[in-house]
């Protein structure tokens, strides 16, 4: 009996030992993986946020551009002139393009006065250089800024020579009669009004001549429009030869011409002398022409007296009326 009990106890101990050894041999590495999977299943949002953070990592510092160095390169190599001018108008810096525009040797302009007005509120058009009749024109713009606590102006100089030349050509085309090369009606009126304003201020006398080419319609009908154009060209040449350089000459309409001339302060018969020269030059011209190609014109003169309010329209009307009086008198004597 006792032996049987002892056997049972030893068998129970052996079976317990076997169970312990079996438990030790079982793999336990898979349990944490299962926990991680379960954790990721429980909170997928955290995983996404973490992935986004990783994707937003800043680029390497070596790839970041040097903006200060880039700005220096842009200023130094700009085709436009760039000048830094302080509040006293002294040049503090200028790039190589500005030195070329200002005809300066490298480094010679720093510390000197900038020769143009600096206005940050509006651009300016200036003539940089003039060689004979050719001009180099630039547009100057300024921006006010600060260098530390000091106020300073950054001035840009942009070459607009080509644009200025084109504008001058268009202006000339709009003010000049293409056939005779004289001022057209618009050009004459603008210039004459300016001259009359000046005459009023300076108390100068002026004379306005209104001329009409006689028989232009007959010339066109008889010999053709080319011959009529030639008569107009020759009339313009006679007027140009007669008057002085400051006086204005214009082709006012088809066969009508105008002259605005300053009267001499020494002589009161300046207008009469101009009429005499016109008739003399006309005669000289006709002496070289065939009888059927001679030209003639009728003249009327009006005077501006200093102290009166100048009116170009009134002067033209008066001279036009006197011109037609002469034209009518020619018809009566034929």
Which stretches are poorly predicted, pLDDT < 50 over at least 5 residues?
A: 36-40, 59-63
Tell me how many strands there are: 9
- Shape from CA axes? elongated
What is the H level of CATH, i.e. the homologous superfamily of the largest domain? Reverse transcriptase/Diguanylate cyclase domain
Q: Largest beta sheet: what is the strand line-up?
A: 2-1-5-4-3
Gyration radius (Cα, Å) is: 48 Å
- Provide the structure class: alpha+beta
Question: CATH class of the largest domain, anyone?
Answer: Alpha Beta
Helix content: 40-55%
Q: Alpha-carbon distance between the termini?
A: 182 Å
Order of helices and strands: HHHHEEHEEEHHEHHEEHEH
Using the coordinates shown, work out and report the CATH topology of the largest domain.
Alpha-Beta Plaits
The CATH architecture of the largest domain is: 2-Layer Sandwich
**Share of β-strand residues:** 15-25%
Mean pLDDT: 82
If helices are DSSP runs of H or I spanning 4 or more residues, what is the number of helices? 11
């Amino acid at each position: 009996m006792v032996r049987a009990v002892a056997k049972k106890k030893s068998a129970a101990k052996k079976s317990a030992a076997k169970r312990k050894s079996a438990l030790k041999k079982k793999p336990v590495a898979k349990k944490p993986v299962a926990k991680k999977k379960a954790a990721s299943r429980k909170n997928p949002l955290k995983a996404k946020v973490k992935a986004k953070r990783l994707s937003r990592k800043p680029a390497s510092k070596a790839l970041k551009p040097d903006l200060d160095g880039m700005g220096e390169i842009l200023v130094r190599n700009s085709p436009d002139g760039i000048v830094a001018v302080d509040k006293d108008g002294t040049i503090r810096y200028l790039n190589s393009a500005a030195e070329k525009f200002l005809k300066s040797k490298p480094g010679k302009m720093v510390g000197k006065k900038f020769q143009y007005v600096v206005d940050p509120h509006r651009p300016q058009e200036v003539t940089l250089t003039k060689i004979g009749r050719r001009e180099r024109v630039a547009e100057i713009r300024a921006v006010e800024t600060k260098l530390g606590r000091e106020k300073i102006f950054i001035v840009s100089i942009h070459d607009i020579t080509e644009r200025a030349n084109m504008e001058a050509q268009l202006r000339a085309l709009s003010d000049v009669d293409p056939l005779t090369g004289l001022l057209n009606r618009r050009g004459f009126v603008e210039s004459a009004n300016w001259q009359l304003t000046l005459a009023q201020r300076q108390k100068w006398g002026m004379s306005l001549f209104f001329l009409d080419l006689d028989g232009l319609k007959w010339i066109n009908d008889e010999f053709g429009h080319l011959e009529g154009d030639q008569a107009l060209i020759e009339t313009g040449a006679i007027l140009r030869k007669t008057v002085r350089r400051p006086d204005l000459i214009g082709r006012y309409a088809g066969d009508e011409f105008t002259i605005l001339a300053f009267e001499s302060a020494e002589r009161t018969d300046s207008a009469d002398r101009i009429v005499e020269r016109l008739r003399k030059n006309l005669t000289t011209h006709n002496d070289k022409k065939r009888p059927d190609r001679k030209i003639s014109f009728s003249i009327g003169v009006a005077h501006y007296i200093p102290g009166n309010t100048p009116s170009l329209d009134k002067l033209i009307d008066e001279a036009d009326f006197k011109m037609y009086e002469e034209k009518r008198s020619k018809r009566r004597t034929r």
